[in-house]
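REVIEWER CHECKLIST
Item 1: Sequence provided? yes
Item 2: Single chain? yes
Item 3: Sequence as submitted:
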Amino acid sequence: SNPLISVIRLHGDLDDFHTPAVQQEMQSLLEAGLLAERVVLYAAGIGYINHSGLDFLRSLGLALRDSGRSMVLTNLRQPVMEYLRALGYHEYFAIRPSIEGGVRALVSISA
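Item 4: Structure as written out by the authors:
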């Protein structure tokens, strides 16, 4: 049977000002049990990221893993990808160029 997958569309900037609200929203979804075991973060709407956004992505990944879930980032814009690459996090996160690629990666994790 195919695993359930949640696709979350992120938009805006993951900076000091906006990240706390996004973090609160994701925490609410997690606590309410509304996230599937496999989560695709569709990030085409993220134009900018700094340390606050990176900390959020890292802590979200850990929280999902602690609850038995897995996460893939997809559709990263070039500035966001370059930021992650500059700090070496392009290999820390599972990153795919498309939602379809993210879904395939998550399904293969469960196989």
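Item 5: Key structural point noted by reviewer: The radius of gyration is 13 Å.
Item 6: Recommendation: ____
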